Amino acid sequence: MDPFSGKGTAPLEACLGGRVGIGNDLAPEAYVLTRAKVRPVGFEEVRSWVERNRSFIEGYRSSDAPEEVEVFYSKRTLRQILAVRELLERPETDVEWFVKAVMLGILHGSPVTPSRSSAHTRSRCLPDTSSARSRNWA
Questions:
Q1: Which among 93, 86, 89, 125 is positioned nearest to 107, based on CA atoms?
Q2: Residue 17, helix vs strand vs coil
Q3: What is the pLDDT at residue 83?
Q4: What is the pTM of this model?
Q5: Beta bridge partners of 2
Q6: 51, pLDDT greater than 90
Q7: CB neighbour list of residue 21: distance below 8 Å, 6 or more residues apart
Q8: Rounded CA gap, 66 and 54, in Å?
Q9: Is the pLDDT score of 26 beyond 50?
Q10: Which of 9, 12, 17, 126 has the fewest CB atoms within 10 Å, i.e. is most exposed?
Q11: How far apart are CA 125 and CA 19, in angstroms?
């Protein structure tokens, strides 16, 4: 039991050791990360999700983002990010939770260095979401 699960490393390690991993955290992004770590999905499941949603993502036209976010992305990339955010606003399946965690990693993550623990290395696509910025996008 990890009362401050953050990135979900303790629950992941428990699961890898054949035990039940339980994590708790007030931050919504902590739940997203922990769930993705303890319920991983395969590459083909993610690829299939992307293919099923490709036309929605590519055809998305809204650009409703704060100005301080707009400066970091081209208009096309920002529309794609917003489309994926809309698709994942209320994830239901393991693959949707996993894609949401990966998107948090892409948008807010920090690079993994060899000095980090093995659990972090196994989950290099999952982010360090300690900043308050991720709360608006989680």
A1: 125
A2: coil
A3: 95
A4: 0.72
A5: 23
A6: yes
A7: 2, 10, 11, 12, 13, 14, 15, 38
A8: 24
A9: yes
A10: 17
A11: 24
